[in-house]
Amino acid sequence: METIEIKKTKDLVKRAKQLKGEILEKYSFYYDCNNCKTEQYFESVKIKGLEITDNCKNCGHVNFLIMEGGQSGYKTRENTLKIYNGVQAIFNEYGAPLTVRQVFYQLSSRGLVDKTENGYRQAQNILKEMRFKGIIPFNYFADNTRYQIKPDSYDGLTGFLDSMQDFYRRDFWKSQNTYIQIWVEKDALRSVFAPITQKYDIPLMVARGYSSLTFLTEASETIRYFQRKGKTAYIYQFGDYDPSGVNAGETIQETFEILCPGVYYERAALLPWQIEAYKLQTRPTKGTDTRIKSFGTDESCELDAMPPDALRQLITNCIEQHIDPQELERHKATESVERESLKHFNENYKNKFSN
Predict the structure, then answer these.
(1) Judging by beta carbons within 10 Å of its beta carbon (0-12, 13-18, 19+), is residue 325 exposed, middle or buried?
(2) Could you tell me the pTM of the whole model?
(3) List of domains in the chain
(4) Which of 8, 142, 213, 242 to pair with 176, CA 20 to 30 A apart?
(5) Residue 92: predicted pLDDT
(6) Number of helices followed by number of strands (H, E) in the chain
(7) Tens digit of each residue's pLDDT (9 = 90 or more) over 170-186
(8) Handedness of CA 81, 84, 89, 92 (dihedral sign)
């Protein structure tokens, strides 16, 4: 019989119990919203000097609070407290969700953790502690590398109709003369890209490094379909600025030139001028990368290092340059009318079968 090493498992269980114990020691208190004066309830650990922001449940106003009094059992070093408050400031500035690596780059740019692998591990550990202690919500972070598969199901036909009413969208691009795809090298950044591409009904292609020929072929078949309809195809690619990241983007472009000639391709990020303009954190180019000779520089930079708001704006700009604002407003008005019609149909169906 195979012998299983359980020491690590025991350590994890022990740590989990410790963290659960910390959760039970949360500090609960009430305060009045600075804007509407409505009483609010907040629950977190009580750490002296911890800066907390809380959205009012009534008016949405952001209230700023600083913990006072004793430590409530927690002895927090000054440096750790600075990182705690730095993390709070990052989410206040850029919103959620963010990936752990995005937060790490922002922390390192503020001088709160080292720009090293040890600094990254320190950030990982502190962000885990902050979630278990209730300082920041668990859903502030995105992990797109793990997922579950389950078919949609409903509690009956009325539930299905309610769902269709919520998800109905009118195809804006059917009447346009353009077709757009947004390509991102890293699956971890899907949570930054997806809300924007979904808003504008644009395909988001997650390449995960070098794309397989199968994935590129399927994408090119879709592009050719729209080209035959007289549309001009645009590809905007986002990836790391390192030997493999740049070469992966070039490979996508070269493959499209063969499979669907005429497509407009642009590497939107990461580019050298963006690294300089945003003063992004760089790292030494990996000497083991076989493409380092053609890369031409010993400094690389990850796409995660770009400030999330700047990255979101760049994605938005790539899409909005192809949109007539007035036509989009007319489209939204038509969609609203159709959604209301669907609502009436749903209500009539429910009334018919409830009587």
Answers:
(1) exposed
(2) 0.69
(3) 20-140 (no CATH), 177-322 (3.40.1360.10)
(4) 213
(5) 81
(6) 12, 10
(7) 888 998 999 999 999 98
(8) negative
